[in-house]
Amino acid sequence: MNYLVSVITVVYNSAKTIERCIKSVLIQDYQNLEYIVIDGGSTDGTVEIIEKYRDKIAYFRSQSDQGIYDAMNAGIQVAKGDIIVLLNADDWFEADAISIGVDTLARQNKADIVHANIMIHKNDKQQISRCRGGDLSTFFWKGMRYNHPSFFVRRAVYERHLYDMKYKIAADYKFTMMCLKDEINFYFLDQALVHFQAGGKSSCFWARLYEGHRIRIDLGFNGVLVLCSTVFQFSWALASLLKNRLRNIKKIMESAQEAE
């Protein structure tokens, strides 16, 4: 089936990365695609770079907004596609990402959202972030488990749920939790389709922990259980940090012994 796919890029002052992002959309081997760019009023040369590709962009807007999720909602509301994909300005696609995502949704006709692995780039290193899976209960206790930058979403899902602009960091978590509560079907594709540049606002653990706590309260979960889940997530993150530190110390000691 020849789905129309809307790719939406939200951007603000990303002159260093926006061209890479745009080019990764334009080289896709999937043809039935509309590209939407929502700029938050950039002043660093981002708009001038976007204008170079204006004839390839179906819709472009540059004006101040209320943050990344406000911009995402704006893009979703003007999108005409049967499938909607969000690609942030710092990120970029694999060359065949769209065709693979669309083909997966076409074959998995009961799936509403396809999600996948992503390749994370940080400090000149890269590693695959594999989907950790889980149901609503798992998301409640352990936080966001899916890679939001990998989502391929059928239009009908966004007609039911948009992103809550009250949350500046973790609205993707609330969106996913609401979808799980409504029994919207996710399908996991064990492949990395998107490259994700770490280091943005969403990478702030403390902000996501705080907003995640508020989101679980908003969704009507028991307050005591919500507090327990927040403490659990903090403890889990601390244990993981200590484990990584100990692993690094062990490697340093082993290297020192080998040098002797």
Strand content: 15-25%
Give helix and strand order, one letter per element, not per position.
EHEHEHEEHEEHEHHEHH
Give the distance, in angstroms, between the N- and C-terminal Cα atoms.
64 Å
Describe the global form. Answer: globular
Tally of separate helices: 9
Question: Could you say what the CATH topology is called?
Answer: Spore Coat Polysaccharide Biosynthesis Protein SpsA, Chain A
CATH superfamily: Spore Coat Polysaccharide Biosynthesis Protein SpsA, Chain A
If classified by CATH, what would the architecture be?
Alpha-Beta Complex
Stretches where pLDDT is under 50 for at least 5 consecutive residues are none
In terms of structural class, how would the helical and strand content be classed? alpha/beta
Mean pLDDT: 92
Question: Oligomer, anyone?
Answer: single chain
From the alpha carbons, calculate the radius of gyration and give it in angstroms. Answer: 19 Å
The residue fraction in helices comes out at: 40-55%
Query: Which CATH first-tier class would you pick?
Result: Alpha Beta
The biggest beta sheet reads: 9 strands, mixed
Number of domains: 1
Strand tally:
9
Description:
The protein has 260 residues and is an alpha/beta fold. The protein has a single domain, classed as Spore Coat Polysaccharide Biosynthesis Protein SpsA, Chain A, CATH 3.90.550.10. 43% of the residues lie in helices and 21% in strands. The chain contains 9 helices and 9 strands. Strands 1, 2, 3, 4, 5, 6, 7, 8 and 9 form a 9-stranded mixed beta sheet that branches. A hairpin with a 2-residue loop joins strand 6 and strand 7. Helix 8 packs antiparallel against helix 9. The longest helix has 37 residues. The chain is globular. The mean pLDDT is 92.
